[in-house]
Design brief:
alpha/beta; 4-stranded antiparallel sheet; 6 helices; 38 strands; about 10% helix; repeat; transmembrane; transmembrane helix
């Protein structure tokens, strides 16, 4: 029991005569509560069964009362009568089943009321009417079955209302008409089956509406959401919706997210998405859709993310995504797709995340154009890896399209007439150009640039032209590059190759070289000895070697073609990373990077370009790091020499440190021994053994003392024990041959 201290106060001078002052919480703090903060009464998790009574006087600065986590079952009319200045009242996680209609009558200043996680089945009309300044009301996770318009009367300042986790089945006409300033409305996890067409009337400021996890079977009426003109998020997931009516969202001009996930939608009306011009995210996964027709998604002018996963889609029109200029993420995984048109994503220039996993893909010639588009997008750094795994034919089952050669995409079944005639395989394309890139642009070539052959002059060197601040037209990300662009020029050698090819053909007939068809295998097994040399403040030279190989080109007759290379380099360890690529053609095995930034760390990787294709997996085994020198460093200084100097200096420093530590330890050890010798007391005690005593001075007294002690055990067999040793007094047996060392102790010998 809490007892109030009897104190005496002087009202005029305010002097204290007892143990507590009027400002301390001692005289008003309820039992079992903490009142250390004068504005917050903390009574959570105290095992309370009723609202505790306050002390004699409740100060006016008490603004928060927390009663959560107790066993309170009833709120009477007088429980909060003395807390007229409360701003927040927390009654969550109790067992409240009844609230008196006048329980909050004195709380005219209350702004936040939390009644969640209780046993309420109804809130009497008029109970909340005195709460004119209420902005947040939580009534979630109760057993409320019905709400009426009179429940929220006079709550025109309410901003957030949570009624989720109840058992509401019907939303009546204009039930929220008083909540003109409501922004957030949670109605998920109820039993909603019917929503009146005027339920959300007057909610012109509502921004967030959650109706998920209910039992709605259709969204038909155009009027239902027509007045929610400020709505930005609408969640209708995990219902039983089978049908979406035409133009039901046409007035939601500001809606940016719409979730229809995990319903039973099998078909969308052609005008179902009309009016959603500002929508950025549409989630319709987990339904029963069978196709995506042309024109269905055209109203989604600003869409960035589409999720059609876990449906039954077997057909996607080639123009389904043609109007979606801002589409970045598209998920089509776990459907029944077998093929896609090659140019279906040709107009989606900012698409970077494409999920096609979990379909029954037939890897035949119909996917050749799609593979070519994916290869071009990958090489330009525009697209993340797409996991398109072949299911048919059996010879390609389990393989990913990225690693399937175009020559293996043969007509399958009865689809021969749908396959386009291939004028020339992509393996015949040569990338012999020397690329000039800007320092802070990505240096990517367009597909047309890579496919256009460039004549080579034997024995001559082709140099790239310097074009400062020029961005690639095919790279949308180049427009956001920093303005302080520096020029990186690449110089490669193109020696004559006619004799070399004849020699390669001749040697191939005698001892065939390994055939290179896959860029990933080429990077892993044929590129070796990547190194960086001649690093200065503005230039660096990258070297690499390759093992002997042959390049098979399918066609009328077998032939051999060279493999090209590209170098990826980027600033290492900086937040604003921006990778750049430069391409090398011919037999060149070195690249000179010029006009680099001084005193900057770069990561350089070398990879092969096989038939115009590159590996989607980064060649981490063929990467080296380089650090450019500060301004003024001579060009002859290399990275290798720097590393050697640093290594030698480190070893020398470690050796000196070890010598110093060893010297200190040895000095301390010698010093301790010297101190022990100086402070040692030269005292020796005489102990008898099992041998007979032979006194140096044959006196009667000495022989008498030792003849009485004889061991019954043999000296050689009996173990020596502590009890067999006898200590003799020092003053009786003096060694006449030794000098006196001390006044009290003498030195003796046995």
């Amino acid at each position: 029991q809490f007892k109030v201290l009897d104190i005496f106060r002087s009202r005029e001078s305010g002097s204290l005569h007892g143990f507590a002052s009027p400002s301390t919480p001692v005289d008003f703090c309820p039992g079992r509560c903490e009142c250390q903060h004068p504005q917050h009464l903390l009574c959570t998790n105290r095992g309370l069964r009723t609202v505790p009574k306050p002390g004699a006087r409740v100060p006016e600065d008490v603004l928060i009362l927390s009663l959560g986590g107790n066993f309170i079952s009833n709120i009477s009319a007088f429980d909060f009568a003395r807390y007229s200045n409360l701003l927040r009242l927390n009654l969550q996680f109790n067992q409240i089943g009844v609230i008196h209609p006048k329980a909050f009558e004195k709380l005219s200043k209350l702004e936040e009321l939390y009644l969640g996680h209780n046993l309420l089945t109804r809130i009497p009309a008029g109970t909340l009417q005195p709460l004119k300044k209420l902005t947040i009301l939580y009534g979630n996770n109760n057993g409320i079955k019905k709400i009426t318009p009179g429940l929220f009367s006079n709550l025109d300042n309410l901003v957030k209302l949570r009624l989720d986790g109840n058992e509401i089945e019907v939303l009546q006409d204009s039930v929220f008409r008083s909540l003109t300033n409501l922004h957030y409305l949670h109605l998920e996890s109820n039993q909603l089956q019917h929503i009146h067409r005027n339920t959300f009337s007057k909610l012109t400021n509502l921004r967030f509406l959650d109706l998920s996890q209910n039992k709605q079977s259709a969204v038909r009426n155009v009027v239902t959401f027509s007045q929610l003109k400020a709505l930005t998020t609408l969640l209708l997931s995990e219902n039983e919706i089978q049908y979406i009516g035409s133009h039901v969202f046409q007035n939601l001009k500001k809606l940016s997210k719409l979730s229809l996930s995990n319903n039973k939608i099998s078909r969308l009306d052609s005008s179902a998405l009309k009016g959603l011009s500002s929508l950025r995210e549409l989630l319709i996964d987990g339904n029963e859709l069978e196709e995506i027709p042309a024109g269905l998604l055209d109203p989604l002018e600003r869409i960035e993310k589409l999720d059609f996963s876990h449906n039954q889609i077997s057909n996607v029109d080639s123009l389904a995504f043609s109007r979606l200029k801002h589409l970045k993420v598209l998920k089509l995984k776990n459907n029944f797709l077998t093929s896609l048109s090659g140019d279906i994503f040709a107009l989606n220039n900012v698409l970077y995340d494409l999920d096609l996993h979990g379909n029954n893909w037939t890897c035949d010639c119909r996917l050749e154009e799609l593979k070519r588009w994916m290869t071009a997008a990958h090489s330009q750094g525009k697209l993340l890896t797409v996991f398109l795994q072949c299911h048919y034919p059996a010879t390609l089952r389990g393989k990913y399209l990225d690693y399937v050669n175009s020559s293996q995409l043969q007509p399958f079944g009865n689809w021969t007439h749908l396959c386009r005639s291939r004028a020339g395989p992509e393996e015949k394309r040569k990338v012999d150009e020397v690329v000039t890139t800007e320092g802070n642009t990505n240096g990517l070539e367009s597909s047309s640039q890579r496919s256009r052959p460039v004549p080579k002059a034997a024995g001559k060197r082709t140099k790239g032209r310097r074009r400062p601040n020029v961005f690639s037209k095919t790279d949308p990300s180049a427009t956001s590059a920093p303005s302080n662009a520096t020029d990186i020029r690449l110089t490669t050698a193109h020696p004559a190759q006619t004799a070399e090819k004849f020699e390669l053909l001749r040697s191939a007939q005698k001892d065939p070289l390994p055939v290179v068809t896959d860029p990933c295998e080429f990077n892993r097994h044929f590129i070796t000895n990547v190194s960086v040399d001649q690093v200065t403040s503005a230039t660096a030279t990258v070297y690499w070697t390759t093992r002997d190989h042959s390049r098979y080109t399918p066609g009328p007759g077998p032939g051999f073609d060279e493999v090209h290379y590209r170098v990826l380099f980027d600033r290492f360890g900086t937040p604003d990373r921006f990778p750049r690529y430069v391409y090398a053609g011919g037999a060149s095995r070195s690249v000179v990077l010029r006009e680099l930034s001084s005193d900057v760390t770069y990561m350089v990787c070398v990879e092969g370009v096989v038939g115009g294709s590159v590996c989607q997996v980064a060649p981490r085994d063929h990467c080296v790091g380089l650090v450019t020198h500060p301004g003024g460093v001579s060009p002859g200084v290399t990275l290798t020499s720097d590393l050697q100097v640093v290594t030698v200096a480190t070893l020398a420093g470690n050796a000196v440190l070890l010598l110093v530590v060893g010297g200190v330890w040895l000095g301390r050890s010698v010093r301790r021994r010297l101190q022990r010798r100086k402070s040692a007391v030269h005292v020796r005690h005489m102990y008898s053994t099992r041998r007979p005593f032979r006194p140096a001075v044959p006196t009667a007294s000495v022989s008498a003392d030792f003849t009485t002690y004889q061991s019954s055990r043999p000296a050689r067999l009996a173990p020596l024990e502590e009890g067999d040793l006898i200590e003799f007094p020092c003053d009786r047996f003096l060694d006449s041959s030794t000098a006196r060392r001390d006044n009290d102790m003498q030195r003796f010998s046995d």
